[in-house]
Design goal:
Immunoglobulin-like, mainly beta, 42% strand, 4 helices, Jelly Rolls, calcium ion binding, 550 residues, 5% helix, 42 strands, 9-stranded antiparallel beta sheet, 3 domains, 8-stranded antiparallel beta sheet
Length: 550
C-alpha cells in the first residue's frame, strides 16, 4: 500500500466511521485491497441491557461491551469457521478429545465428524450441546453405543475399554476478551444448574475466566465458579509454567437448584475481586489482583464429568451408568461490562485467510496498528487457538503457548509466517486471533482469520490381478482436517475399474494387464486442491493361487 492510499484510508477512518473498511488479503503471492461495504449495526439487547449503553443500579459506572442471548448455537465447525464460540475438550483453549486429568471431558459438539473423520464427513449429531428457547444447554451424560464409535482411540482405551461419557464445553477466545486493571470489568452469566440431588457424583460444571496465552502448559490467571455435583466454589488460581502458585477458594454455595440465577464477577487490580449472585455480594477476595500476569482473558462455559476428585467428591462411574438423564448447565445469557469511559476495541479492517499448500509456505503482514485499531499505541497479542486434534500440528496431547510448529509471528515486521515445507503433520485449518487492548480495563473483540493448510494425499502404488474383484478406499488416504466436505476424483483407472466420489471407493474388476498412471485429486472446503500421481498395475491372474485352481 503506497503512502497516498494509506493516508487517504486513515483519513476516512478519522472523518467518517461508516466509511469503507479496508482489508488486506494475502494469497501467498501478493497482497491486494479488499473493500467491505459499510453496514448499519442494530442495537443488541442482552439480558435487558443494550450493548454500548451505560448501566444503572449494580451496573452504575459500567458500559455493556458484549454478550450473547443464545438465540442460536453459533459454534466453530467444519462449515462455520467464523463461529462465535469454540467447542473444546480442555479448560483452556485446548483440543477436543483431551484425555489428561480431565478424564471424561470429551466435547460433544453437534458438528463434529468424529475422530480423524471417522464418520466420513457426516456430522455425528450429538445432542449434548443445543439451544432451545434462547437457552444454551451444555449436558453431561453417558454416550450411546453409536456415539461411542466416534470417540478418539484414547477415549476408548480407558474406563474398562470404552469412555462412556459425553461432556460439553465452549469458550469465547475467538469472540471476546477483557483486560482488568484498576478499572474493573464485570463478567457474568444468567444460568441454572441441574438440581444437586439428581446429579451423579463427578459432575463438574463451571463458569470460568482464563488468560488467553496458555494452552496446555499454562501461565496466567484463572477465576472460576467451579462445582461438584452438590455445590459451587469461587476460586482464584494463578498458573506459572503449569504450576499453581496461588489458590484462593470460597464456598461451597448452594445454587444447584434448577432455578436461574445471575452470577456476576467483578475483576480488578489493586482492590477486591468479588462474586455477586442475583445482585447481592456473595464472596470477595480482599486485595487480590484479578490480572497478576497482565494478560487479556476470555470466558469459558463447561459442563463435564471429572474422572477424579474435586472438593472432596469422587467420580462415581456407577452413578452415571444408572442415570437416565445425566446433568446439565443451562445458560440464558452471558455479558461483559467495562468501566465507563474505557474503550471497547474492535478491529476496523478484516484480514483475509492465508491458503498454503500442505508442504508449502506463505505469510500474512498485519495492517498497521493505527489502521487495524484506529490507534497506533494499542497493545496486541497474537495467538493460534487449538481447535481439533486432527488440525495442523495437533494431537490429543499437543502442548504449545502461542503458536504450533510451523507458524510464527515477528512483531517488528507484523508478519505471520506459515512454513510447512517439512511435510509432516495434519492438513486443515489453524485459527489465528489478534487481540487489541490498552492497560486501562478495556474489553475487546479480536481480529480473526485462518491459515489453511491444503489437503494431503497418501495413496501409494496400487495393484490388482486381472479379472479379480477389487476395491480400495481412497477416502481415508485424503486428509483435509475438519475442512469438510472433501471432494475427491481419480483419473487414469484401468478398464473395468471405476471410482465413486460419494463413497471414495475404487471398485470393479480390471480386464487387461498393464501399468496405468493414476492421478488422485483431493479438495477441501476452502477450494485448495492437491493432486498425487501414482501407478496402478494390473498383473496376470495366477491360477495356482485360486482355491478352485482356475
Amino acid at each position: 500500500m503506497n503512502s497516498t492510499i494509506a493516508a487517504l484510508f486513515v483519513a476516512s477512518l478519522t472523518v467518517i466511521r461508516s466509511a469503507l473498511y479496508l482489508g488486506l488479503s494475502n494469497d501467498g503471492l501478493r497482497q491486494r485491497l479488499q473493500f467491505i461495504l459499510p453496514f448499519e449495526e442494530r442495537s443488541q439487547i442482552v439480558g435487558g441491557a443494550v450493548i454500548g449503553q451505560n448501566g444503572s443500579g449494580f451496573y452504575a459506572g459500567y458500559t455493556l461491551s458484549w454478550g450473547d442471548e443464545f438465540n442460536s448455537l453459533d459454534i466453530v465447525g467444519p462449515a462455520n469457521a467464523r463461529g462465535k464460540f469454540f467447542p473444546t475438550g480442555a479448560y483452556h483453549p485446548g483440543i477436543r478429545g483431551n484425555t489428561t486429568s480431565l478424564g471424561t471431558a470429551f466435547d460433544a459438539d453437534p458438528l463434529t465428524t468424529g475422530y480423524k473423520d471417522r464418520n466420513r464427513g457426516v456430522a455425528v449429531g450429538f445432542d449434548n450441546m443445543s439451544v432451545s428457547g434462547s437457552v444454551l444447554r451444555l449436558a453431561a451424560r453417558n454416550a450411546t453405543a453409536r456415539e461411542q464409535a466416534f470417540l478418539t482411540p484414547t477415549d476408548r482405551s480407558i474406563n474398562g475399554g470404552v469412555r462412556p461419557h459425553l461432556s460439553a464445553m465452549i469458550h469465547t477466545a475467538g469472540a471476546f476478551a477483557y483486560y482488568p486493571t484498576t478499572n474493573a470489568v464485570i463478567i457474568e452469566m444468567r444460568a441454572r444448574f441441574s438440581p444437586r440431588l439428581t446429579n451423579p457424583a463427578g459432575f463438574h460444571p463451571a463458569f470460568w475466566t482464563y488468560s488467553v496465552a496458555p494452552v496446555l502448559n499454562p501461565t496466567g490467571n484463572e477465576w472460576d465458579l467451579e462445582c461438584n455435583s452438590q455445590g459451587m466454589h469461587f476460586s482464584n488460581i494463578v498458573h506459572t509454567s503449569g504450576a499453581i502458585s496461588t489458590d484462593n477458594t470460597a464456598g461451597p454455595f448452594d445454587y444447584m437448584d434448577g432455578a436461574f440465577h445471575v452470577f456476576s464477577f467483578v475483576f480488578r487490580n489493586g482492590g477486591n475481586t468479588q462474586l455477586y449472585v442475583d445482585g447481592a455480594l456473595r464472596s470477595q477476595f480482599a486485595g487480590v489482583d484479578s490480572n497478576t500476569k497482565d494478560m487479556p482473558s476470555f470466558v469459558l462455559l463447561t459442563s463435564h464429568i471429572f474422572n477424579n476428585t474435586f472438593a472432596g467428591e469422587a467420580y462415581d462411574a456407577a452413578a452415571w451408568a444408572r442415570s437416565a438423564t445425566g446433568a446439565y448447565l443451562d445458560v440464558d445469557w452471558i455479558r461483559g461490562w467495562r468501566t465507563t469511559g474505557v474503550k471497547h476495541w474492535k478491529p476496523l479492517v478484516s484480514v483475509a485467510d492465508l491458503n498454503v499448500d500442505y508442504d508449502g509456505n506463505g505469510k500474512i503482514v498485519l495492517p498497521d496498528a493505527r489502521v487495524l485499531w484506529g490507534d497506533a499505541s494499542v497493545t496486541e497479542f497474537v495467538q493460534v487457538i487449538p481447535y481439533d486434534s486432527s488440525e495442523p500440528d495437533m494431537t490429543e496431547q499437543t502442548t504449545f503457548t502461542q503458536f504450533p510448529e510451523g507458524i510464527s509471528y515477528d512483531a517488528a515486521s507484523r508478519t505471520i509466517k506459515a512454513d510447512f515445507t517439512a511435510g509432516k503433520g495434519n492438513a486443515g485449518r489453524s485459527h489465528v486471533v489478534v487481540y487489541g487492548y490498552k492497560p486501562d480495563g478495556s474489553t475487546m473483540e479480536p481480529v480473526r482469520f485462518s491459515i489453511n493448510r491444503g489437503p494431503r494425499v497418501t495413496t501409494g502404488p496400487l495393484s490388482a490381478a486381472a479379472s479379480d474383484s477389487y476395491h480400495h478406499d481412497v477416502y481415508g488416504e485424503c486428509d483435509v482436517g475438519v475442512m469438510m466436505p472433501k471432494i475427491l476424483s481419480v483419473k487414469g483407472l484401468p478398464r473395468g475399474l471405476s471410482f465413486d466420489r460419494s463413497t471414495g471407493l475404487i471398485s470393479g474388476g480390471p480386464t487387461a494387464t498393464g501399468v496405468s498412471k493414476l492421478t488422485i485429486s483431493c479438495a477441501n472446503n476452502a477450494g485448495q486442491t492437491t493432486e498425487r500421481t501414482t501407478t496402478f498395475t494390473v498383473h496376470a491372474h495366477d491360477a495356482a493361487s485360486r482355491p478352485d485352481g482356475g
